[in-house]
Amino acid sequence: MSPTLLFTLSLAVTLSASIGVGLMRRFALHRAILDIPNERSSHITPTPRGGGLPVVVVILATLLFTRGQFPGEDQLGLVMMTGGALIAMIGWLDDCYHLSAALRFSCQLLVSVLAVALLSPADAGWLEKAFQVLIVAWSINFYNFMDGIDGLAGTEAVMAGFAGVGLAWHFGSGFILLPLLLASSALGFLWWN
Known about the structure:
By secondary structure, this protein is mainly α. The protein contains 7 helices and 2 strands. The radius of gyration is 17 Å and the shape is globular. The two termini are 31 Å apart.
C-alpha cells in the first residue's frame, strides 16, 4: 500500500476514534459512568469511563474493511479482532458494573490462551507456551494499570504503534497495518484524554 493511502487510512482512523470517544464521553457523562479518583489516579475529578470501547470498535471495523488487503496480517488481525473484542467487552462491563478482579483476570487469561494457541509456532513446547500465556496476560494487566494515569496509556500506544510502523517500513516486514491502527486510534483517543 502506498504511503499516501496509509496516511489517508491513518487520518480516517484517528478522526473516527476521536469522534467515537467524544460520543462515548458524552454518553458516559449522561449516564454517570465515571471513574472516581483514588490513590493511583492522576486526575482529581470524576472522569468518564469507556473511552477505549470506541477505539476498539474503530480498529475492529478497519480490520474488517481492510481484510485481504494486507494478507500477511490477516491471521494476526483475526486474533486481534477476537481477543480485542473480548477484552473490550469485559472492560466495558467492568466500567459499568465493577466486575471482580478474579472474573476480569479469568477473561484475560482466556484471551491470552486463545492468542498463544493461534499465534505461537507449532513446534513451541508446552513450557514456552505457558510462559507466552503469562506474558500476554501480564501485558494486558500492565496496560490496565497504566490506564488510570491520565494520558500515559494513550501516549504509550501512540509511541509503540508508530515505532512499529517505522520498523515495519524500514525492514519491509509487511506488518504495518496493525501498528498503524493502534497508533492512529490512540491518537484520536488522546484528543479527549
